[in-house]
Design brief:
Layout lengths: L2 H33 L16 E7 L6 H9 L8 E8 L5 H14 L3 E7 L5 H12 L5 E5 L3 E3 L3 H9 L4 E10 L5 H18 L11 E5 L13 H10 L4 E12 L5 H21 L10 H33 L3 H23 L8 H22 L12 H42 L5 E10 L4 E9 L24 H8 L7 H6 L4 E3 L6 H10 L13 E3 L1 H6 L5 H17 L3 H21 L4
Parallel strand pairs: 1-2, 1-4, 2-3, 6-8, 11-12
Antiparallel strand pairs: 4-7, 5-8, 6-7, 9-10
Helix pairs in contact: 1-9, 2-3, 6-11, 8-9, 8-11, 8-12, 9-10, 9-11, 9-12, 10-12, 12-13
Length: about 600
């Protein structure tokens, strides 16, 4: 057994425990508890019914706000014992005006609805903290809910019953997706509901759905302004006081808003960043004195936050074993993973709704973890500081394409590294045997640009020129028959094999498989001065190993070459406005790239 096999088995054991073993452990605990004599619940010291504050934040919720308020106004609970508070976070639509009409109707039926208007979009956490400050001292229980979720008519009665047990700090309900939601998402939430139900048996539900959860007001604390998953941080902070978190399956929380698969993957990215952040923010929950809360937090949330990194290492171990040992287990696993990701990518491109039982669920979990890994990288690079807001349909289409593009990049770069590893090994040996110097070299390039910054990164390539090729001439473009190019380097450049190490740049999120050519900073100012709007070609878009401009024009030799290529770059950007046109463009570039490699048309 190779060292890679041993490491893989260790990591696999951790993953199996997180997904299966932990559930089995909770089921065993449930059976043991059922055999014990039931103790009487600890009754509340107060005989009066609690006063409840229902809190929610809204940003451009014109489609849902009135229905949500009427749903809350119809709840079976004394009207004088609960109030509704809505924080409007700089809405640019008529959500506030629609809410005013609904609130007037509720007031006519003695349901008190308070609307808090904020003209500027300061973010959801700012809204939550403002509502907490406003309401904490006025209510016994605070219920946090989303505008898009409807509650069962007896939800507040059930919440009251749960809090009659003096140990209860948090309660939530059965989160139910609309039937139109993708089957993989429904399967995921069926698993989550089962898991939370089992955790509820030991009074330690880890992570409540933001659609609805209730907290004893004395346990509520403001949330850090940089928290990503505010609902999780808020609810778990309450557990640090030592109470129980339970799930009441009689409370139905119905989510009306269905995400497309692309939108769901976008959410997975943010959740991945949030899970990573929560490990740092909620370390006090690891205190053994908290009993099952600490065990569940480690088994559920800590391992969930680490799982993208664990999976990355597992994939790397499989790849290394294939390259070095060619063991049967690693070859079979790499083939299975290649099949799973390939079929998943094809289904996504064709927008296929056909459900492959078991297969789709596995693909969804694996893809979700890769998306979560992207979220971790983005979090560490400071990408999650913008205010919360609802994404418009146009933004959703664009971001959906970008999300699908990133999934394709991750899967494609991994598959590419596996398939071309023999070629890369041969190229490395050839370079080492035919010229002095390192096999690889890195060069500073300009990456994706935004309103705030222009990123820089080091691109990796096989060395195709002599060492210190620019020592005398300085930074200059390569030309045809360039004397600095080595004999083997000429072949590598014609076949584009010299670009293969950039698959690593793609995997870690610095580049894309397809996109504008990454330019050197030393040429950037000159090109921007000579070519209007040159810098906009990578606005919100990562540069690529290949691209429309690269396959149509080849390498740049002058400013004029760069000028002639910018039109192709903008044509590619425009294709991303429509998923169908983007898919067509992506396949076209891929086909032309293969032609360049096979026919040796590179320079």
């Amino acid at each position: 057994m190779t060292i890679f096999a041993v490491l893989f088995l260790i990591l696999l054991s951790v993953a199996v425990y997180h997904h299966v073993g932990y559930v089995i452990l909770l089921k065993i605990i449930k059976q043991l508890k059922n055999k014990e004599c039931n103790e009487d619940p600890i009754a509340s010291t107060s005989s009066s019914r609690p006063k409840i504050g229902v809190l929610m934040c809204a940003y451009n919720e014109a489609d849902h706000i009135q229905e949500k308020l009427h749903n809350l106004g119809a709840l079976l609970y004394p009207n004088d014992l609960y109030d509704i508070h809505v924080y409007f976070d700089g809405c640019s639509d008529n959500s506030y005006e629609l809410a005013q009409k609904a609130a007037s109707q509720l007031e006519a039926n003695n349901v008190h609805c308070i609307l808090h208007l904020q003209n500027d979009n300061k973010g959801k956490i700012a809204g939550i903290n403002a509502l907490i400050k406003e309401t904490k001292g006025s209510y016994d229980i605070l219920v946090f809910t989303d505008v898009s979720a409807l509650l069962s008519i007896d939800a507040l009665d059930k919440i009251e019953q749960d809090f009659k047990n003096g140990n209860t700090a948090i309660t939530t309900g059965q989160y139910t997706l609309d039937e139109a939601a993708p089957i993989a998402q429904q399967s995921y939430w069926q698993y989550q509901n089962t898991l939370k139900g089992l955790e509820s048996n030991v009074g330690a539900v880890i992570g409540v759905p933001g659609a609805m959860f209730a907290v004893r007001s004395s346990h509520v604390e403001p949330v850090e302004t940089d928290a990503i998953n505010d609902d999780f941080v808020l609810s778990m902070r309450a557990l640090a006081h030592g109470g129980n978190a339970i799930k009441n399956e009689d409370i139905i929380v119905y989510e009306r808003e269905c995400d497309s698969q692309a939108q769901d993957y976008m959410r997975r990215e943010r959740l991945g960043a949030g899970n990573w952040q929560q490990i740092k923010l909620l370390l006090p929950l690891m205190n053994p004195k908290l009993g099952w809360t600490s065990i569940n937090f480690l088994s559920h949330k800590v391992l969930r936050g680490l799982m993208p990194l664990i999976m990355l290492i597992m994939y790397s171990v499989i790849l290394l074993d294939v390259i070095i040992f060619q063991s049967l287990w690693s070859v079979c696993l790499s083939g299975a993973l290649l099949l799973i990701h390939s079929v998943s990518a094809i289904k996504g491109r064709l927008n296929s709704k056909r459900h492959l039982y078991g297969f789709d669920e596995i693909a969804y979990v694996l893809n979700s973890y890769w998306i979560a890994f992207i979220g971790i990288v983005k979090f560490e690079r400071g990408f999650y500081d913008s205010p919360w807001k609802r994404v418009s349909s146009a933004e959703t289409r664009c971001n959906g394409v970008k999300c699908a593009k990133r999934v394709l990049d991750v899967v494609g770069s991994m598959i590419g590294l596996i398939l071309v590893s023999p070629i890369m090994l041969g190229a490395a040996i050839a370079i080492k045997l035919t010229s002095k110097g390192p096999v690889l070299f890195n060069q500073l390039r300009v990456g994706e640009s935004t309103d705030e910054l222009v990123s820089l990164f080091y691109v990796y390539k096989f060395r195709s020129m002599v060492v210190d090729a620019e020592a005398k001439s300085g930074a200059v473009w390569a030309s045809k028959n360039d004397p600095r190019i080595t004999p083997i380097g000429s072949f590598l450049r014609k076949t584009r094999i010299d670009e293969l190490p950039q698959l690593w740049n793609v995997l870690i999120g610095e580049m894309s498989l397809i996109g504008p050519r990454p330019e050197r900073p030393v040429f950037y100012a000159k090109l921007e001065k000579s070519i209007p709007y040159f810098c906009h070609r990578t606005y919100g878009l990562k540069p690529g190993i290949s691209g429309l401009a690269q396959v149509m024009n080849g390498y740049d030799e002058s400013v004029e070459d760069a000028r002639s290529k910018i039109g192709w770059d903008y044509a590619y950007v425009l294709s991303m406005s429509s998923p169908l046109s983007w898919i067509k463009m992506e396949f076209t570039i891929l086909f032309k790239t293969i032609q360049v490699v096979v026919l040796g048309k590179g320079q």
